Amino acid sequence: MSDDPTHPSTGGVAMSIAKRLLIACLVACMAAAPALAAQDAIRPGESTGHGMVPKELVGAWTLVRCDNVYPDGHRVELYGPNPTGMWLIDSQGDYMMQIVRAKRMPFAANDKSKGTPAEYRAASMDSNAHYGHMSADAQVLHSEIVHASFPNWDGRIGKSSYTIHGDELTYTVAKPSSGAAEGARGEVVWRRVHS
C-alpha cells in the first residue's frame, strides 16, 4: 500500500475533495452570516424611538483623545498619550468603533490562549471596541451597542451629548467603563477622515 496521501488506495483523493468541499461550505456560510444578521438587526430608531444619522456624522473618524474627566477637573488619559482609534458610521446608522493604546504589551508566549494575568489585564484595559446602531437628534447621540469588548456593554442602549466644530466631534459618556464610581465622565474627541 502506498504512503502517498493522494494515492487512490489510501482514500486521500476522496479526503482531499471532502476537505475542499468543507472549506467551500465554511467560506459560503461566513460570507452569508452578515446578511443574515442584518435581517434580524434592529435598525436605528426602531427601539430607541429616534431618527436617522445626520449627514455630518456619516463617514470615518480617527481618534484624537479619550479621557475621563473627574468632578475636580483633572483628566486621566484612559489609553495613554496619543491613543489610536477609528469610528466608522454609515448612512443607516450602523457603526464600528475601536480605541487602542498606542503602545501595548505583547504576549510573551505569542499565543492569545497562553497569556499571563498581567497580559490579559493589559489587553482588556488597553483597548475598547464595539459595534451597533446609532442615530442622533438635537446634539444627542442615541446608541445601541450590539457587542462590545467590555461584555457589560453588550445590548446597552445609551445617549451622549455631542458637538461638532469643523472636523472635530466631541461626545460625552455619562458612565464610562472605568471611573464612573468616582464621578468621572468620559470625553472622546474624533477628527473626520477626508478621502
Number of helices, where a helix is a run of at least 4 consecutive DSSP H or I residues: 2
What's the arrangement of strands in the largest beta sheet? 1-3-4-5-6-7-8-9
Number of domains: 2
Strand content is: 35-45%
Shape: globular
**What's the CATH class of the largest domain, please?**
Mainly Beta
CATH topology of the largest domain: Lipocalin
- The first-to-last residue Cα distance is 62 Å
- Mind describing the biggest β-sheet? 8 strands, antiparallel, barrel
Give me the count of strands.
Answer: 9
Radius of gyration, taken over Cα atoms and rounded to an integer in Å: 22 Å
Secondary-structure content class: alpha+beta
Summed over residues and divided by their number, the pLDDT gives a mean of 82
Q: Indicate the percent of residues in helices.
A: 10-25%
List SSEs in N-to-C order: HEEEEHEEEEE
pLDDT under 50 segments (min length 5)? 4-10, 25-50
CATH architecture type of the largest domain: Beta Barrel
Domain Lipocalin-like: 58-193
Pfam families: Lipocalin_5 (PF13924)
Protein name: Lipocalin-like domain-containing protein
InterPro entries: Lipocalin-like
Topology:
Layout: H1 12-40, E1 59-69, E2 75-77, E3 84-89, E4 94-100, H2 117-125, E5 127-137, E6 140-148, E7 157-165, E8 168-173, E9 185-192
Antiparallel strand pairs: 1-2, 1-3, 1-9, 3-4, 4-5, 5-6, 6-7, 7-8, 8-9
Domain Lipocalin-like: 58-193
Protein name: Lipocalin-like domain-containing protein
InterPro entries: Lipocalin-like
